[in-house]
Predict the structure of Haloacid dehalogenase.
Amino acid sequence: MPPVKALIFDVLGTTVDWRSSVVAEFEAMGQKHGVPSGTDWGKLAQQWRANFMKNIYHIALGGSGTLNVDTMHKEMLDELLLTPEWSHIGPLWDESTRKHLVHVWHCLKGWPDSVKGLYALKKQVIVVGLSNGNLSLLIDMAKNADLPWDALLSTEMFNTFKPNSKVYSETLRHLSLPPENCFMVACHMFDLRGAASVGIPTIYVRRPDENPGEQENVKSKKEGGEVDYVVDSFVEIVDIIAAHNA
């Protein structure tokens, strides 16, 4: 087997837990600005994320739209707060509050295993963050969550979004590596399928509440599935790479 020289990690959802941070800040801003108790902040967060992902797919498939995720998050939040379900919150959250909520995406926390796993893997291979987030967001997040990337790539640099195959082929070009010397690590099958389309082997990471209904059905190729490995933490990948490169 060719040696593994680089691991390419998805960031939002795979490396950091976006949901907990966003829900916590929704709750804080709700209390601060008098939003009625009992509001389902988890539902609002999930709808914000779902609308964002829908827009990402649209652009990845060739549609038009902003490539700056901060701008997109703001547009999606403004649109949600105009819908009947959330319009009672709209007048309570002014422009400053909404911009504050958008900035929360810059300050997400890593999953409990992320930092430990990345530091251990960094001793063996190149660890690369590859995200649909814009670069300033990713830099802030890395500093805030102590994510020790060797390289950090934003799809904004490639004028599209994952899972467009251009993202993965351009990442390989920037790393000066063939696909067989890399692995793509993600908790989303669309991301891993995009990487596999250019020949990059794949590792699926199960993350709580990410892609309900998907992770239960993901299997490794040994089990008749699509991906090379299925793990529950970055720490598990340390042993996989050590064995692979032995």
In short: The chain has two domains: 6-17+108-245, 18-106. The beta strands are 6-9, 16-17, 109-110, 126-131, 151-154, 182-186, 202-205, 229-231. The chain has a mean pLDDT of 96. The chain has nine helices and eight strands.
